[in-house]
Amino acid sequence: MDYYAQQVFQMRNVPNLSIADNQFMDHWEERARSDDRHYVKKQAAERRERDRAKAADVLRRIDGLQEAFVDLRRKAERNEVSWTDLAKAQRRLVRERITLEKVLESLQSSEAGIARMEADPTAYLSDFYQRFPALKDRRPNLAVDLAEDQRKRGVESLM
């Protein structure tokens, strides 16, 4: 039973709920899940955009490294670089390329994380707020929403 189903289950056990209250709860769970889907979709789009920009930057840097390799090879062919300097430069370029490739791998795993977010937004947000309990939980709360609905209908709240 997830976050919203638990709230509805607990609230259904409250005595003296009206038919209107029960109807509100019937629709509240789906609206809450819809809010989660919308929020996660927005977050996923923002993360993908950041990841695309980062990937484009990394690919430009890898292209620059490739050009540096070609440049270094040309200098070596013309004997403009000593063997020790050539070896140092090659090791530095290889280390930079490996680092950039690791960044690309992390971006791929980030995409897998985004896909998991989108697969079950409610579970993702529940896990998120469990991992970061100091953050204010901004998900809908049935008790608060039901009290607001009752106030709008002019009914005295049971809570």
Overall number of strands: 0
Q: Tell me the span between the first and last alpha carbons.
A: 23 Å
Q: Counting H and I runs of at least 4 residues, what is the number of helices?
A: 5
Total domain units:
1
Sheet of most strands: none
Strand content: under 5%
Low-confidence stretches: none
Q: What structural category do the secondary elements indicate?
A: mainly alpha
Radius of gyration: 28 Å
Q: Give me the strand/helix succession.
A: HHHHH
Which descriptor suits the 3D outline?
rod-shaped
Helix proportion: over 70%
Can you give the mean pLDDT?
Answer: 92
Note the topology.
Layout (H helix, E strand, L loop, with lengths): L2 H10 L6 H59 L5 H37 L1 H11 L10 H12 L6
Helix pairs in contact: 1-2, 2-3, 2-5, 3-4
Task: Give your account of this protein's structure.
This protein is mainly alpha-helical. It has one domain (3-10, 19-152). Helix content is 81%, strand content 0%. The longest helix is centred in the N-terminal third of the chain and has 59 residues, at 19-77. The protein is rod-shaped and about 90 Å long.
Quick structural gist:
This protein has 159 residues and is mainly α.
Q: What are the key terms here?
A:
159 residues; mainly alpha; 5 helices; 81% helix
